[in-house]
Amino acid sequence: MLFILLAVCCSVLVSVLLKLARRHGVDVGQAIAWNYVATSALTAWVFHPSLDALARPGAPWLGFVGLGLLLPVIFLALAASVRHAGIVRSDAAQRLSLLVSLLAAFLLFGEAVNAVKLAGIGLGLVALACMVWRGRTDAAEGPAGWLWPLTVFVGFAAIDILFKEVARAGTSFAASLQAMFALALLVAFAIQLGRRAAGRTRFTVRDALAGLLLGLANFGNIVFYVRAHQALAERPSLVFAAMNLGVVALGALVGTLVFREKLSRLNLAGVALAVAAIALATHG
């Protein structure tokens, strides 16, 4: 369970770093781009992937390209969601996205469906509606407070579906990870070069260092999650449930206690429903 705890901490740490970035004048877009330098280098160092698998017939390059595009774009959406909606709702929206990927598994991949999982999916949608609801006191902020969490929800669901497609192709995990991160790096820096050409940003050492730290947390989340599955190979559902529930719970604690995020009773009910929905979906 230590690996699960470390993975949960690293996942929430990513949101915390995104929250702190604005306060310390860090350009989030640049930090996300440099994050992929760290994750690409660490993947090569830790997993030693054999890239021969990427040149074989049937390698899922369509999935790799889709992930290479989505990973940095949705990372930017997560940063915007943390900024406008807070850590609590952003982390919960990210983890609730698994419900859409479960539904896709039933409809696209032929996995068995049962009433408990369907109940979890339905409850998760109710939880999401409760979490993104903004009261009258938040009306001045405009739609950003609910639009970005919804974008995170849909975006991470799409990423998870693409991950499933890549996994079905049989390419090794390490090689797939290396390809995704390398493509995401190119896309992320292309976006930043476009911003630089438009005079909207300039590259700094501070942003690079912040991005490398963000990449370390991002990669730690992946490594410890994989190690948890290896340590508990006969209980994958336990790892899956504990990871998602842990992120929602720890994110709620950090957001409310450390950053004093203001949540309505309906928002808090949504977080509680999210925990119940994930428990139902993974148990089912």
TrEMBL record:
Topology with respect to the bilayer: Multi-pass membrane protein
Subcellular localization: Membrane
Phylogenetic placement of the source organism: Bacteria, Pseudomonadati, Pseudomonadota, Gammaproteobacteria, Lysobacterales
Family: Belongs to the EamA transporter family.
InterPro entries: AA-Vitamin_Transporters, EamA_dom, EmrE-like
Positions of the EamA domain: 2-132
Protein's name according to its UniProt entry: EamA domain-containing protein
Principal cellular location given in the protein's record: membrane
GO CC term, one of those recorded: membrane
Transmembrane segments: 61-80, 92-109, 115-133, 145-163, 169-191, 203-226, 238-259, 266-283
Highest taxon of source: Bacteria
Keywords attached to this entry: Membrane, Transmembrane, Transmembrane helix
